[in-house]
Amino acid sequence: MTTSELNTSGVDRQLVDMMDAVFADYRDTHPPTGPVRRDTELWSRLDQLGLVRLSGSEEAGGSGASWYDAAELMSAAVRHGVRAPLAEHDVLACWLLEAVGAPIDGAARTVCTLDASGTATAVPWASAAEKIVVIWRDKDIHLVADADCADLRITPGCNLIGEPRDTVSAEVSALTGVAATQELLTKLRLRSALVRSIQVCAALDRILELCVEHTCSRTQFGRPLSKFQAIQHLIADIAAEAALARAATETALAAAIGSDWSAPNLGFLVAVARSCAGHATSVAVRNGHQALGAIGTTIEHRLPEYTRAALAWRCEFGSVRHWDEEVTREALAAGAAGLWSLITD
């Protein structure tokens, strides 16, 4: 999503500028090297600025900002290529703790749902967290515990761009949890999915910008690459797909915020957003690397940062196929009489 579009929903321009300045300064002084880790110095600075718990209520120690502000923070981090578990900590883990009435301290968190064996795989940022909000099923109810990482077994792993995606195991009998309703868990699922859609859209926008910059400045046969019709078609397709993904994501986000994540068609709208973002990624990655050629695959160029990120994120919290099937199921269930209201309400 773009800054101008988010600002129409009330995001403060000065807040956006501050986010960009913080991430730009960090990236200038911390070029990516090696595995991705949570930088405690950056985390401390973001915490001092009130950005770590940006959307949390003031009563629970947050900044009381909106989801639009949180979405802009996620997008700003993506634009500058800064990796941090801001979404996992703020709008997922800490939100769930606040929703179930649990106390929240200053520890960095992520969240996961354990299976019947007490294991969760591909947990974002688990090995970089201090606490993990753990969800598990106990007979007919779900329980939530704010567990110290020292009390869990964490096996490190990573995704395509080196972000921690770890395996977490727990002895649930040793955990003390509070009950969480199915409604809360459904909201968590939709929040998680929409977080990745927001991040993918931000990556697609940067792919487009980099392609436009390169093709306008690089000359071949005496004229800029952007003057060649084949190149224009490649860039136009990226722009169209990115715009579609962004529009679908913004529609889902607006419906979520306007209904406190309880709109009857929200599941469908989130599925559409994830489906559009997933398929847009295929076009943007293919066309972007075709437009830039060999230079776009080098470590000196920033294009792979965004193409690989989009590919990694589109498969998390549900694959592209999963969300395609979800769109199909929702549409079939609505039937001919209910499809229009499913899309527009």
Topology readout:
Elements: H1 3-7, H2 13-29, H3 40-48, H4 67-79, H5 86-99, E1 109-113, E2 119-124, E3 131-138, E4 141-148, E5 153-155, E6 165-169, E7 178-180, H6 182-217, E8 219-220, E9 223-224, H7 229-258, H8 266-292, H9 303-313, H10 320-344
Parallel strand pairs: 1-3
Antiparallel strand pairs: 2-6, 3-4, 4-7, 5-6, 8-9
Task: From the structure above, extract its key features.
globular; flavin adenine dinucleotide binding; Butyryl-Coa Dehydrogenase, subunit A, domain 1; Butyryl-CoA Dehydrogenase, subunit A, domain 3; 345 residues; disordered N terminus; alpha+beta; three-stranded antiparallel sheet; FAD; four-stranded mixed sheet; 2 domains
Characterize the structure shown.
With 345 residues, the protein is α+β, with helices and mostly antiparallel strands. It has 2 domains: 13-180, Acyl-CoA dehydrogenase/oxidase, N-terminal domain (Butyryl-Coa Dehydrogenase, subunit A, domain 1, Orthogonal Bundle), CATH 1.10.540.10; 182-344, Butyryl-CoA Dehydrogenase, subunit A, domain 3. Helix content is 54%, strand content 12%. It is built from 10 helices and 9 strands. The strands form 3 sheets. It has a 4-stranded mixed beta sheet. A 3-stranded antiparallel beta sheet has the order 2-6-5, with no helix packed on it. It has a two-stranded antiparallel ribbon with strand order 8-9. A hairpin with a 2-residue loop joins strand 3 (131-138) and strand 4. The model is unreliable at 1-8 (pLDDT under 50). This is Acyl-CoA dehydrogenase. Keywords: FAD, Flavoprotein, Oxidoreductase. One of its GO terms (molecular function) is flavin adenine dinucleotide binding. Its cofactor is FAD.
